Amino acid sequence: xxxxxxxxxxxxxxxxxxxxxxxxxxxxxxxxxxxxxxxxxxxxxxxxxxxxxxxxxxxxxxxxxxxxxxxxxxxxxxxxxxxxxxxxxxxxxxxxxxxxxxxxxxxxxxxxxxxxxxxxxxxxxxxxxxxxxxxxxxxxxxxxxxxxxxxxxxxxxxxxxxxxxxxxxxxxxxxxxxxxxxxxxxxxxxxxxxxxxxxxxxxxxxxxxxxxxxxxxxxxxxxxxxxxxxxxxxxxxxxxxxxxxxxxxxxxxxxxxxxxxxxxxxxxxxxxxxxxxxxxxxxxxxxxxxxxxxxxxxxxxxxxxxxxxxxxxxxxxxxxxxxxxxxxxxxxxxxxxxxxxxxxxxxxxxxxxxxxxxxxxxxxxxxxxxxxxxxxxxxxxxxxxxxxxxxxxxxxxxxxxxxxxxxxxxxxxxxxxxxxxxxxxxxxxxxxxxxxxxxxxxxxxxxxxxxxxxxxxxxxxxxxxxxxxxxxxxxxxxxxxxxxxxxxxxxxx
Length: 493
Hints:
Layout (H helix, E strand, L loop, with lengths): L2 H4 L6 E4 L11 E2 L10 E3 L12 H6 L4 E4 L12 E4 L3 H12 L8 E6 L4 H15 L4 E5 L2 E4 L2 E2 L12 H13 L4 E5 L2 H5 L8 E6 L7 H4 L2 H9 L6 E7 L4 H8 L4 E5 L6 E9 L2 E8 L2 E7 L4 H16 L4 H8 L10 E4 L5 E5 L4 H14 L4 E5 L10 H10 L3 E4 L9 H12 L5 E4 L3 H11 L5 E5 L6 E4 L2 E4 L2 H10 L5
Parallel strand pairs: 2-3, 3-4, 4-5, 6-10, 6-11, 7-10, 11-12, 12-13, 13-14, 18-22, 19-20, 19-22, 20-21
Antiparallel strand pairs: 1-5, 7-8, 8-9, 14-15, 15-16, 17-18, 23-24
Helix pairs in contact: 3-5, 4-10, 4-11, 10-11, 12-13, 13-14, 15-16
C-alpha cells in the first residue's frame, strides 16, 4: 500500500523521498528488530526508550518508510521515505487501520474501561453472546486475544490493551475468521497513548473508578480524565455504572447516548433483592417497566454490577434481552476471577485478580458473607507500580481476614522485602495474625496446611496470570495450577 494512501488527509511533512513511490507491503512495526524488507517503521517514544534512536537499524533491516516526530540527524539511504508528524503515537491508529483494511468497520466493537471488572465483563459479554445468540465473538484483553477458543498469536508487548499496530492486526485476524462482535479492554494507559483510536467503537462500557495506577496518572482527576477519553468522541454509545459518580460526566459528554446500570441508583437496568450465596447471586432485574428473575454463577455485588453491564451492552447491540438473561445464568467460570475449587480437605479456595484496595475489599466482603469458617488471605503487591496502595491493601486484608500471609506478586525490579514491609505496615495496624512468606508457592502451601474444613483461602493479585516477574527473570507460575497440585498432594512439601 502506498504511503501516500496511508497518510491521506493526515497532517504531515515529507522530509525525504516520495510517499507516492513508497510501497509499504511487509507490515508496520514500532520495533526495529522486527523490521523486514518492504515494511514501515514508526519511531515512538516509550517510557524507557525512544524509537527515534533505532531508525537507522530499521532502515538497515529494509524499512522503505519511516514515521518520525523530528528530523533524524543521521543520513539515511535515499530509497527510504521519511515523514514527520507532530505525534507518532497519535498517527499510528490512522495508518494501522488503513493498512489492515479498516477491519473494525465490519464488526460490532465494544470497549470496556474502568478500574475493576474489565476482564470479567469481557468474558461475560463473549459467553452470553456465544451461548444466547450463537455469535462468533472476539476478545482482546489481559488474558490474551481469541475468537471463541481459537487463540490469535500476536507478539504481546503490553499487559492489557495492545499497541495500535497490534490492535488493528488482531482486528483484521478476527474479521478474517468471521467475527461479528469484538469485546476489548481499554486501559487508562491505552486511552492516553492513543491505542484504541480508529477502532470504530460502537459501545463503550464504564465499570467504576477507584484509586489505582496513580503512579502513572498522578491524581484521581487525571486518572478519571484518562478513562473519559473513551467517551469523548471515541464511541457511538455508552453503557455506564449509575452507582459511580463518573457516570454523570459520561452523560454530559454523550447526551442521549448513555444507557445506565446500577444497584443503588435509578438506572435503565437495575438489580434489586440480591441473594448472595457461595454458588452465585440471584437478583431481580428491572428494565423498561418489566421485572425478570436473573442470576449469575458468581457471588457478590461486584458480580451483579458486571452482569448488569453485560446485559445492558448486549441489549444496546440489539440482542434479545430474555436470551441474554438466560445465558447469564449458565456462564462458564472466568479464569482467575473469583475462580473457586474445594480441596479434598473441605477447604474452599478462591483465586482472584484483585490487586487494588477496592477490588480486594469487595472480594473479601463477598467471602465474608458466606464463609462458614475462617478466612485466610494470601497476597502481595506488584513491584515498580503504585506504592501508595500497599499499606491500605494490607489493612483491608487484615480487617476482613483471620490470617494474612504476605507473599510475592510480581516484584519486578523492587526488593521483595521492601514491598512486604510496606504491606505489613498496614496489616500491623489491626493486630490480625500474619506471616511473611515471600515464596508464593510456599505461601499457598502454608495457607492450605493450616486451613480446616469450612475455611476459605483467598489467593489474590494474579488471577489467571501464568508467570511471575522477579528481578529481570520471568518464571512460570499460576495460582490455580499450584493450588490444584498442592491439594492433590502431587507437589513435594
